Amino acid sequence: MGLYRVVAVVSLKKGLKDPEAETIQKDLVLRHGYSAVKEVRVGKQLTFLVEAESPEEAISYVKEMCDKLMIYNPVIHELYVTLHA
Amino acid sequence: MPLNREEVEEIRSILGREPTIEELAMFEAQWSEHCSYKSSRRLLKLLPTTGRSVLIGPGRDAPAVEVFPGIAVVFKIESHNHPSAVDPYNGAATGIGGIVRDILTLGAKPIALLDMLYLGDPRDGRARWLVKGIVRGISDYGNRIGVPTVAGDAWFDSSFNTQPLVNVACVGIARTEELVRCRPASGDLILVIGNPTGRDGLLGSSFASKPLSDNPSEDIGAVQVADPLMEKMLIDSIAELVQRKLVKFIKDLGGGGLTTAVAEVAADFELGAELRLDELHLRTELTPLEILVSESQERMMIVISREKLEDVAAVLKKYDVPGSVVGFFDRSGRIRAYYKNGLVADVPARELAKPRDIKRSSKPPVELVKLLNPVGDLPEVPVSEALDSLLSSPNVASKRWIYEQYDHEVGVRTVLKPGFGDAAVLRLDDSRGIAVKGDANPRYTAIDPFNGAANSVAECYRNLVAVGSTPVAFVDEPNAGNPEKPEHFWYFEMIVKGIAWMASELGVPVVGGKVSFYNEDYRGRQVKPTATIVGVGAVEDVSKVKTMDLKYEGSAILVVGHTYPELGGSEYLARVHGIEAGGVPAPRPSSELRNASYVAKLIDRGVALSVHDVGLGGLAVAIAEMAILGGVGVELYLERVPCRGCSRLDEVLFSETQGRYVVEVRLEEVGGALEVASASGVTAAVIARTTGSKFFTARWGSTTVFEKGLDYLRELYEDGLRKYMV
Question: What per-residue confidence (pLDDT) applies to B309?
Fold first, then answer.
């Protein structure tokens, strides 16, 4: 058994409008001259410290939990789960 | 609903040729139930829509009534049931956005929101997830655009577990002479302002005009992410455009998108239009078809004369609202859409905007007869425990968990806050105000749609009267099942007839509304059909407004109106006996009118200290609520309650007979109050007195029926909903 830091990122699916990100891009990033930035997306990041047999088990444990607890809405969000570097 | 073969055939004969794909998409959007009212229009004609106060009736994006000379109220209701079922947060939020834009179209300033929510059983996980998302969506959007959510209705029932009803209303005010009521003319420019158009909400109206699929992830096209910041900019920029008289006509780009907005205006004013689709500002590359029917949120159409273009552009720039000139109206009577110089659609506006009425067949479901059977012999249960169970029912219990998430005081107009009055009251000026309230009882309408809908109207009327206002107008929203199924359509038909009957008996017009069909789950089961009514009342003197909390010890409590043994469809029967059946309480329009005018007199003369209408849970619940909210004890003498035909205590306590009020009156005023009652043929009796003890006690003669601590009752009432949600 080991402890693994697992990161879950919830963001709007590609193709869906992301008003918060658009506002950041238009009124913050571009307004201050960072014109190389072509797109901004906003999401929510959750970090879990998980006890598991392996990194893979820790990740699938978190994935299942996010699904069951409806931490995100699969209709509009995508969930990205990874091990903290 | 995709077009059926007959409809495609009809389109061919309208055009005299094969339609292009763009034209088919336009017809599909506009001929959807949501946009065209093709199944409902015929029945909606039954509604009384005229009256002295009516400035603009049904037909525009929102109606307007004159509540005081020179002061107009613009208000409207809409449903966002389907979007909220797949994405509760954004679905509910964009519902608020849409209804606010409807109010803007007449140049009114939005001052209040209402939310009428018919939600799943809070013990069910998915239902609870929907409830939380819906309430947060409304809260975030309303708070961010700075319009307070002041009133509403909430109901919890397992039939709404996967398909909730989210009905929202917005109230706006304007000076009568400043309402935007010009006619658009040939040559006027058509501008689309607000959010760049994307693929979101593609054919959303068509989505709302069919049952949900069993895999909601497939309905992704109908999902729209709410953008309250843009909405706020639209509100502010339109206020300036209206105030400087730069616009002739405003329309929301809602269901059906650009197609519906242009087609309806052209048809209403016998115009045609030429559109340059490539001129529209876009979020992503779109095909002409997508441009025509996208339902991207936070967009509006404005119509201006050509010479105002420069001024309009300057205003839009000032508020950072993107806009584009997408075409102009002409006299052709046709909608011609060009994309990069190619003609992609050329259709007659009138035929597009107004498809033929469909006469749907209608028949009552056979199993309904069972529901209508009179309530048989009920087992005797301890009424004391029944009262506990009712006060803690999420339908009766305090809705604080919901409304404390809303900013209900922005704009400082709120005179009467949620939770204390039967309706919310908003200040217009130093002395005058308006009252607003929304009501429905899904259980009544599921058992008996005609009488149930009539009772929704009457309940709304009583709520407006109880705070001290004079009802001026209603808007309505029947939420029904699939109109193609006769057993579902019958509910809709009966609901409309019930609303029409009661509204016209009460002499209050139904000036507008919306219809929502296809409220069924993926198995085709209809949710409880629901008739939501929102009413506006005029308050001459806001200092006389009445709350329901008891004020003093030593005053008398009057009940106005007879109590009949009407437990059918009641909260008591459902919650305590597990029965959702029986004839619902009879609508009594003439008692409603008589009793309302009596209560209004008591309020006007300053005799009434607190007023509460008797609704869900009956007399016992009404008095308990008044005692809990006021922290004032009550001794109730049940043998004094004017009853006809009641033979059991539970009938006296929990019957939901319509037309009744509870009024707190100073002891020395009782004689006068009763004299006025008998002079006007109103049944009124002193049934209780307020005490210095912190108990709610009910007696029958010398027998104590129950004696309950107010703190104990308060906890039940405050916790009934909250315990599931936090």
Answer: 97
What is the overall mean pLDDT for chain B? Answer: 94
CATH number at residue A9: 3.30.1280.10
CATH entry 3.90.650.10 includes domain B546-726: yes
pTM for this predicted structure = 0.94
> Known catalytic residue: B34?
yes
Percent of chain B with pLDDT over 90: 88
Which residue in chain A is spatially nearest to B228 when comparing CA positions?
A19
Range of the domain at A71: 2-83
- Chain B closest-CA separation from residue A78 CA (Å): 12
Q: Is the pLDDT of residue A80 over 70?
A: yes
Chain A residue with CA closest to B198: the answer is: A17
Q: Is B80 a catalytic residue?
A: yes
Residues pairing with B587 in the sheet: none
Residues of chain B neighbouring A40 (CB-CB closer than 8 A): none
pLDDT band at B377 (very low <50, low <70, confident <90, very high): confident
Which among B487, B133, B156, B91 has a CA at the least distance from the CA of B297? B91
B399-409 pLDDT per residue, tens: 999 998 988 76
Looking at B47-159, which runs of residues are DSSP E strands? 54-56, 64-68, 71-79, 109-119, 149-156
Domain extents in chain B: 546-726
For residue B297, give the chain A residue with the closest CA: A17
> What amino acid is encoded at B389 in this protein?
S
Query: Can you tell me the ipTM of this complex?
Result: 0.87
Number of domains in chain A: 1
Average pLDDT over residues B164-168: 98
Contact A11/B at CB under 8 A: no
For residue B380, give Cα distances in angstroms to B416, B571, B576, B623: 40, 16, 11, 22
Of B87, B283, B284, the CB nearest to A76: B87
Distance from CA of B158 to the nearest CA of A (A): 20
Residue B209 pLDDT: 57
Query: Could you tell me which of B487, B488, B468 has the C-alpha nearest to residue B478?
Result: B488
